[in-house]
Amino acid sequence: MDRRRFITSVVAAAGVAGPFAGVACAAAQGGVKPVRGYGPLRPVRDLRDGKVRLHLPDGFKYRSFSVAGDKFTDGSIVPGRHDGMAAFAGPKGSAVLIRNHEVNGPVGAFGDKDRAYDPMAGGGTSTLRVTRYGEVINSAPSLNGTMMNCSGGPMVWRAWVSCEETVNGPDVADDFSGGDNSKLTEKHGYIFEVPVGRAATARPIRSAGRFPHESAAFDPSSGAIYLTEDNFAFPSGFYRYLPPKHPVLAGRLLDGGRLQMLAVKGAKRKDLSLGQRPGAAYATTWVDIDDPDPAFRGRPTNDEVVQAVGRQGREEGAAIFARLEGAVHHQGTIYFVSTQGGATATGDTAPDGFGDGRGQVWAYETWSGRLKLVYESPRSSVLDLPDNVTASKRGTLVLCEDGDGDNYLRGVTKAGEIFDFSRLEPISGDPGAEFAGSTFGPGGHTLYVNIQARQGMSIAIWGPWQRGPF
């Protein structure tokens, strides 16, 4: 299908309701009980080395691969902090994975430093071709010299957009990590395009803003890129970037477009980080960000710079969210996660950072402009600080937790019901280990996911998907 016919077909489908169109969000007040899903979880040994890393339902198997500290097939070293990821169809039934590495600080670029955006920055992406059973065919760095590459999103023209969750740079005072920003050679806080099959150009899309980017979700009918902001200590916003030319027609994502921030009609600076009523829905509009890549005098604090873009939107009435993280496009709807949104449940303590809840899932209908609450966690034992999100072919969401205790992969069905699919076995000496980067491979045979840990790794999971909601 040529590009113009592709755009025509997706515009015709844009009015199809998303999979959660009928959900009245009974879960917002704890009214929906967890469903069986695929059944109880049990410890399962990793087919790579026999260790128990995951608890899964009966019939499911997995293999870990591409562990931090190992070598890529090109001989360079695999960095850590595996995070957001997408799977694309590869030759002979394989999958091509593009994977983020959320490395902070001026620690030096991995891979070929001559290709690095900033040779002092240690984040970026790697590209791997793997079988549907997690066997690596080839692997190599694909974007290096970026920083805190958290999540991003797959693009239909066979590319991944990687997002920097930071505003570090030589023009900004040091952040919470204690790294010396004066050692950096470039400004950070941008999005980068990484094409399938070749290395990235390492050119930032500056018009899409300089702020702590988290995820990117592409709407093929309009060509807009929807962006989330994970501003840990301050309010976050939901954005869209309107490129100067439809990316499918251009064959890539162009700089020079317009950045906007979502607002609720008739309610300036509506605080959506708070607990919501069942069935909450809002009519929305968009406000322009006049200066998406501001310049600064002197060397301002990191706190000042991290709010510079979002403050512009809120001054024009944009809505307030708590830590927006994962986002995914499915059937004309953008689903995105507010990690600390919602009301603090009885018995739960409020988490650190901005927002007191244990998580919300929102749905933005691109054709109507309506924003709806899909799910709000009633308590941490049901859903605890969701992060990355993806959707199955059936429209069930997969949520990666970044909670305080045991971390799970949870499913949210089209009826708004939640279930447990996998529990991460605690890692000795690494209580911060979490799931990240869930993505279904070609044909839906395999769910690929990352364990973000001190010794991060990727995992391929397969089994009787037809038995449950995925």
Automatic annotation (TrEMBL):
Residues 1-26 form the signal peptide. Keywords: Signal. Transmembrane segments: none annotated. It comes from the Bacteria. InterPro entries: PhoX. This is DUF839 domain-containing protein.
